[in-house]
């Protein structure tokens, strides 16, 4: 792309993002502590009803991991008024779609229906919160489902245990040290009473955010929300006092074995600040510069030009309490780990001592603008953003203002973040290698 065309494209992105329509919303709390967010958009006859519970893998006990992900599945089993196996059928028969997902920090459920089924969506989510059926049949069924998921996505997947390797070695005190899917023996050992107690503690109105977004009449929506949710009892206050990690002050090197790979991989991992801090946004931009796309610095150098790596990437994984910055590389042929480490460190050193070029910096800002617009280009995307910004960031209006954080970042900020967080004395090197036969 020539410079004139590039400049025109950059200007277009800026104009589009500056003129992007503000996401208007209303938020309030019910007396039972349920936080409600309404977003009205009558341009298409669809509505998303969603609930984000502030519970994830970090809320589990060390000997009972995997509970939050387990409940992502278990709460589709049925309720007092929805027969077992009927949830998906009700959604599809009424022209909707639905899903759920879990992270270390939260669990999210949603349905999207034609807007004349708003009441149905609210009723179903209130049923999930009010009185789901948690019995031995459902627990046993979902235990089998999750074991199969783990076998397919992790245990039998090449490099499927990368995050396990990172978490176990980068964290030693905080519950981020275990994986979201957890250990199957913990689920096997858990009693029905333990599952029921976990639900009673975390899946309560005062630990949840309800989002209704799309083709709605706010007055009608509020009335329905009051009807279905206001009488659900408030749960006990949840206190979180997770143990803090000691700073990494000396490079540590470990080996992790994976029986499903033939080629080794090398990981250079750093513990970084919460995704609520500005530095997390800077590190996100830094990871984009290093490895987003085939024109990025590391890909162009190690994969395209010098043929030293089959794959290379830099990942910034934002989380509520701590984030993770990690380099990942698979060597080409006889290339050694020492060679890859030297080349990656050389690029880090450049970032620590030099400013990225004005042209590259403009590309980074353009991508941030583009991602911002795309993340809120659908009703489902808007609902998810509203839920996330309230639950994990404590500021719902970041749906409109987060881009201002990216716009405030300077080339000097990128240099300082590299100097502050990406030093060899602050990392764990993981040699991720084939398991010996």
Q: What descriptors fit this protein?
A:
Cytochrome Bc1 Complex, Chain A, domain 1; five-stranded mixed beta sheet; 16 helices; 11 strands; disordered N terminus
List the helices and strands and how they pair.
Blueprint: H1 3-18, E1 26-29, E2 35-40, E3 46-53, H2 67-74, H3 87-93, E4 97-102, E5 107-114, H4 118-130, H5 136-155, H6 162-170, H7 184-189, H8 192-202, E6 208-214, H9 218-229, E7 252-258, E8 265-272, H10 278-291, H11 297-305, E9 309-317, E10 323-331, H12 337-353, H13 358-375, H14 379-393, H15 398-408, H16 411-421, E11 427-434
Parallel strand pairs: 2-6, 7-11
Antiparallel strand pairs: 1-2, 3-5, 3-6, 4-5, 8-10, 8-11, 9-10
Helix pairs in contact: 1-13, 4-9, 10-16, 12-16, 13-15
Keywords: Hydrolase, Metalloprotease, Protease, Signal, Zinc
Pfam families: Peptidase_M16, Peptidase_M16_C
Signal peptide: 1-20
């Amino acid at each position: 792309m020539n410079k004139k065309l590039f400049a025109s494209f950059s200007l277009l992105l800026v104009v589009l993002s500056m003129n992007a329509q503000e996401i208007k919303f209303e938020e309030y709390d019910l007396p039972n502590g349920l936080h409600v967010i309404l977003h009205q958009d009558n341009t298409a006859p669809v509505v998303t009803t969603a609930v984000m519970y502030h519970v994830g893998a970090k809320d589990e006990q060390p000997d009972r991991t995997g509970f939050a992900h387990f409940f992502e599945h278990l709460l589709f089993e049925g309720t007092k008024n929805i027969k077992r196996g009927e949830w998906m059928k009700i959604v599809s028969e009424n022209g909707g779609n639905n899903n759920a997902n879990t992270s270390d920090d939260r669990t999210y459920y949603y349905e999207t229906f034609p807007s004349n089924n708003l009441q149905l969506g609210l009723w179903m989510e209130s049923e999930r919160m009010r009185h789901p059926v948690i019995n031995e049949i459902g627990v046993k069924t979902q235990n089998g489902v999750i074991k199969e998921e783990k076998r397919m996505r992790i245990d039998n997947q090449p490099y499927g245990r990368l995050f396990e390797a990172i978490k176990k070695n980068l964290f030693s005190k905080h519950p981020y040290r275990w994986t979201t899917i957890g250990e199957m023996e913990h689920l096997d050992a858990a009693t029905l009473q333990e599952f029921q107690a976990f639900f009673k503690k975390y899946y309560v109105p005062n630990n949840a955010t309800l989002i209704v977004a799309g083709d709605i009449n706010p007055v009608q929506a509020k009335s329905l929300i009051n009807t279905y949710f206001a009488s659900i009892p408030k749960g006990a206050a949840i206190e979180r006092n997770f143990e803090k990690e000691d700073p990494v002050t000396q490079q540590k090197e470990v080996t992790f074995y994976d029986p499903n790979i033939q080629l080794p991989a090398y990981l250079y991992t750093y513990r970084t600040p919460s995704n609520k801090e500005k530095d997390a946004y800077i590190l996100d931009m830094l990871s984009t510069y290093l490895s987003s796309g085939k024109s990025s610095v590391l890909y162009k150098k190690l994969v395209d030009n010098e043929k030293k790596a089959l794959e290379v990437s830099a990942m910034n994984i934002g989380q509520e309490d701590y984030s993770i910055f990690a380099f990942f590389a698979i060597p080409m042929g006889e290339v050694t780990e020492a060679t890859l480490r030297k080349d990656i460190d050389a690029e880090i050193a450049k970032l620590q001592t030099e400013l990225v070029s004005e042209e590259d910096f403009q590309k980074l800002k353009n991508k941030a603008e583009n991602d911002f617009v795309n993340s809120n280009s659908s009703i489902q995307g808007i609902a998810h953003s509203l839920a996330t910004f309230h639950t994990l960031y404590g500021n719902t209006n970041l749906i409109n203002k987060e881009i201002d954080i990216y716009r405030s970042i300077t080339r000097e900020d990128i240099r300082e973040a590299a100097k502050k967080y990406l030093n060899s004395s602050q990392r764990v090197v993981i040699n991720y290698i084939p398991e010996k036969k």
